[in-house]
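Here we describe the complex-level prediction in full. Unlike the single-chain runs in Section 2.1, the three entities below were treated as one system.
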Amino acid sequence: MSYVELKDIRVSYDNKTDILKDLNLSIEKGELVSLLGPSGCGKTTTLRVIAGLIQPNDGEFLVDRHNLTKVPVHKREFGMVFQSYALFPHLTIKENVAFGLKLRKEKKSVIDQKVKDILAITGLEELGDRYPKQLSGGQRQRVALARALVIEPKLLLLDEPLSNLDAKLRIAMRIEIKRIQSQLGITSVFVTHDQEECFSISDKVAVMNKGVIEQFDTPEEIYKNPKTEFVARFIGFENFFDLTLIEKGKYKAVDGTIFLSTRQWEEEKKTGTIRPDDIEIVSEAGDANTVSGTIKVRTFLGKSYQYEVETSIGTLLVNEVDDVIYQVGDTITLSIPSHKLIIV
Amino acid sequence: MRKNIGLKSFAWLVFAFLLIPLLIIVITSFGTNSTIQFPIKGFTFNWYGKVFQNESFMDSFVLSLEVAFIGTLAALIIGVPAAYSLARHKVFGRNWIKSFFLSPTIVPGLVVGYAVYQFVVIQFQFPILQGLMLGHFLICLPYVIRVVGSTIEQLDFSIEEVSWTLGCTKLQTFFKIVIPNITSGIFASFMLAFINSFNNIPVSQFLSGPGVTMLPTSLMNYIEYNYDPSVSALSVVLMLGTIVLMFIIEKTLGLASIS
Amino acid sequence: MTQRRLPYIILAPGMILLILFLVLPLISIIFPTFFDGGFTFANYISFFKDEYNLGIFWRTLRVSLIATLVCVLLGVPTAYYISQSPKKWRGLLMSITLFPLLTNSVVRSFAWITILGQGGIINTALMNFGIISKPLTLLYTEFSIIIGSVYLFLPLMVITLVGILENIDSEMMEAAETLGANRFIAFMKVILPLSVPGIIVGSILVFTGSMTAYTTPQLLGGNRNIMLATFLYQNATALGNWKGASVIALIMIAATVIVMKLFDWVAKRMDKRGEASA
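The structure predicted for the assembly as a whole is:
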């Protein structure tokens, strides 16, 4: 049994439509797990169920073999970092951080020491006596993190903590969060809609859609082997075309072209997908895995050009570095390598 | 999903505290006894008939409507351009002038009425009715300045600039562009000022005389010597008026805009 | 030139009317209270030396203070409940609160006469149940003025507070709870301190309102429980003491302004956090 277990969690506000549909998730001790998905997929709801801010209609939630489903928020001892940071504006940084410790009736000397330590870890030593209004976005973020961590939570919950920061700070802070999280070895759940952020920080990722987890895997596995069309689309596979199965690893497209795939496959799946980066432009058509088409649109992307190519199996997007520049109207042949072709 | 029974029951006790006294008035207005009783015995609409036959109630009702209407209208005519000017023009001592326009709210209503009565009616021999309208104009003005002022401040200034570039004079722009876009603020301030003027007692207390008595004052005088259900009946009529006004406000602006 | 003069031309009518019909009248009633042959504070000194007057002055402050406190106690949780209720309910709850506020104050005071009077609902009920044998004196007491004032001004307090509480990030409460505070403690330690500006604005409205209200003490106070406003009216009409009335008028204005400044000062002190060097 894993450290954190969500079993058949169902959440519905009106008992007609489910926000979460019998959701199951297991998290090992010390792992940082991300919930990834578009807005409305249920990732924040899942986090709030874990936090105890939402009571599930059905299902159980366990941490360390203890059933916490009915335990109120304030007794769960989880640290949570909110999207808005939710710093208390009437308290100084120190007082904000000490808030949870004071409620635990710890001795003043202990509180002072713990606050001092966590402010050092999060790089906030100098700012203890300021008020939240006086801090920058990145500093507030650190305070929110320090406040959640200082109570030595069994679980750290982060609800899109980086979404209010600018791009540069976001990258710096996610490295920071990862550093602190692994330094303290604290089991964490991280909610985000940004796949790059999610892949860089997580041990495991749960991709969610419409209240269910579509795939739960390591970032590498999800990047390389998306299991469903939704996951593939969400992580940047932009070309999709229908296939019919001939035999194991061998498919036929709508125009009769044969496609081979050396990737994992399941009987019922019959859509081929590939990233624009992975399609190659070749000079000659082969026996299989090649298709010809006409360039409709050319877009300059900086390091490469993107071509929108109309082919007999559908429109394909191809990214190609600018060694040779093709013109709109040119007919080119595309190769879809069998080791890059995913079947979902 | 997460409910708090304690808080909920506390709040509903407060709502009960706010509503039950008014509900009791409604019930007592139907009693047959000649003094107010609760619970009531019998059921009659007679007291409502009595209210509508009572000439002093009816006269003061008409007067109250007139005074509140004229006071509010005057406050709008004077106040809307002033609010615009305070919001848009570079005026020397703007904050000071604004607080001066809002100053009638600082002076207690009874004192406003008393001062106007002493100075305007006694010293300068104005008719009481004119003093009364002046007093009500004074208490209406701050509502217009505040509500219309904040509406204008929220209005995008560039639509006025566009109007100028298209050839409108400033005066034309004010009537063709500004006024149509602040009608909700004007209407809200009209409603607020009208209701407050209509309900106001302290300002009118000194400014009343033979034939010049506002409805609330008239009702208050009646209560001092009578304790019959016609008071309840008149109260119910006034409450119905309030409900109608609230309904109109809710349908046009939303109640949130005046609170 | 005309461009620069325009705003003053627009503002002039209102200012002239205010000067003519508010400022000058006020000066004309207050000025004579300082002159008795020469400049003097005698009228004010003698007002505050008189036990009877002092009694009225303190009663007015006492009643207003208690009414304000009760409004805060009743208003804060109620406003919080409204601000936390779903959007579709909030409109209804606000209407329940607004309705008494928009109802005539005579009607609202009258309701309490029927409840608190000798033959009123409370006394009738208590006697019917045999709890008391003769009616309690509830009406025409300070108690009845306080109830009347609370009834009059509680909606103002609630509406002011709802505006403030709606703007407090709901994650603030949740953050406190995840840190180990139960709802009551989270409310007391986070929501309450953050609603202080609203409490202060509401308190100014309730306090100055109760202090200068005329209808409530007139209808619910009776002759033995006179407040400043009713005292002013009594001086001016029944006693024909115009100078006395004017003295009370200035005291009421001064008390209103002082209370407002005092509350504002408290509000500024409490709200200085984070502003100083930000």
